[in-house]
Design a protein that fits this description.
By secondary structure, this protein is of the alpha+beta class. It has a single domain (2-81), classed as HPr-like (Histidine-containing Protein, Chain: A), CATH 3.30.1340. The chain is 35% helix and 26% strand. The chain has three helices and four strands, in the order βαββαβα. It has helices at 16-27, 47-53, 70-81, and strands at 2-7, 32-37, 40-43, 60-66. Strands 1-4-2-3 form a four-stranded antiparallel β-sheet, covered by helices on one side. The longest helix is centred in the N-terminal third of the chain and has 12 residues, at 16-27.
Amino acid sequence: MKEKTMIIGIKSGLESRPVAVLVQTASQFESKIYVESESKKFNAKSIMGMMTLGLVEGEPITVIADGADEAEALEAMEKYISGAVKIK
């Protein structure tokens, strides 16, 4: 299991479209992936769970990945969450 603290770098925060892309990104990996903010923790592959977090730009979160491809999963999640990967 690996975890990393990241800062939301997506200008619109995690609204419906960015959440959908985040869930698609997480779903590419075999590992279990969770996003934790304050005392809330949700499966990153669950669109309803991720929408519940209501995350905004600049907010810190912890991403936890557990599985065979956990390192790659964390790297991809960080690229998207930091804003390095743009929504099309």
